[in-house]
Amino acid sequence: MTGFEVYRTYLALKNHFTKKNYDFVKYNGKVRANEKSFEQRLDRYFFKKLAVKYNESEVIEYFIANFLEDPRGYIKSFSVDNYTKWKHKKESLTYKFKEDVNALLDDVEAPYDKSFGDIFRASKGKHPNILKRFYANDISLETLVIFETCLGYVNDLTKVLVDPIWDDTKMKITKYQPFLQVDCKKYRGVVLDVINSKL
User: Fold this and answer.
1) CA 170 from centre of chain
2) Domain count, the chain
């Protein structure tokens, strides 16, 4: 990749994470960008360094990790540290999901197989337990994405919740979803294992 190609990837992912109507996957990362204007940017060396350091898939992952930390996409806040933490999260995804499910089940009463849906239950002006746990940093964004991919709760919450905090969280979930590979059969098994361990 060239520095300009890295820059175009950055612009495409910035559009993806900040604009409701742009989908990086659907548009295959296509954006309008001019190489001449790129060469006049003061931050062009940042993109050129990334082009030397990473291959195309790593560049995409680097930007995803950093946009999750700073959705506005300020380059000064981007770091290798954010990328390393994100890779570690992906590697320990199943373990973290299991911990998160365990924490979520602490909020509901047994029998868990019957009360599991309560963690997604919201009322006007009141967030469900899954969001309360997320806002308290007790569970990860990845857990929200896994549940959305496998159960599809976001549209139901949108019908009940009308607030900017939820709108921001919904955007994070839906924009991150195409980049997180989820095996629903595997994660359903994890949920059942946690429920059985609590019996």
Assistant:
1) 10
2) 2
Of 53, 88, 123, at which residue does a domain stop?
88
For residue 48, the enclosing domain spans 3-88
Query: CA separation (Å) from 27 to 12, 36, 114, 142?
Result: 9, 23, 41, 24
96 and 73 within one domain: no
Q: Say yes or no to pLDDT of 115 above 90.
A: no
Q: Which of 147, 177, 153 is nearest to 64 (CA)?
A: 177
Quick one: which of 90, 36, 26 has its CA closest to 62? 90
179 shares a domain with 98 = yes
List, for residues 4-55, the tens digit of each pLDDT value. Answer: 999 999 999 999 999 999 999 999 999 999 999 999 999 999 999 999 999 9
Which residue type is seen at 47? F
CA-based nearest residue to 154, from 132, 169, 164: 169
Over residues 174-184, mean pLDDT: 97
